[in-house]
Amino acid sequence: MTDFREYVGQASTSYRDWVGTAAAENDAVGPDLYRVVGLDSGSWIIVGFDIYGGGGDGEDVFVYAVNTEGDATSLDAAAESDGALPVTSFMLHDVAAQQVIDTMQQYHMHLRVSAIGDRPVHVIE
Length: 125
Fold this sequence. Notes:
- The structure is a single chain.
- The chain has helices at 33-37, 74-82, 97-101, and strands at 18-26, 44-53, 59-67, 88-91, 104-113.
- By secondary structure, the protein is α+β, with helices and mostly antiparallel strands.
- The chain has a domain at 27-103.
């Protein structure tokens, strides 16, 4: 049987000239992520988001969330029964990437040219 499900993977572009990682921290006193994206935190748990942009085409922001129906313990059960966490993908038509970033106290995006692979980078100056 063929698996036609869509899985959320690592960030990628057509040519992958730059690759890397990102990390962020919630801001307890700043704008609320759930309010910005329009989801009820009592019914949904946001588990990820993707931000796409470049080339003058604007940007697209997607949020991935689990409908908990008020029961956050269902996350573990849902992941165990399927082997992956089933999420709903929301494309945020009226939300800019900066609005999502502004809900974070701090964030760090690290990109490196793909030609160097996983070689350590030693800062000397």
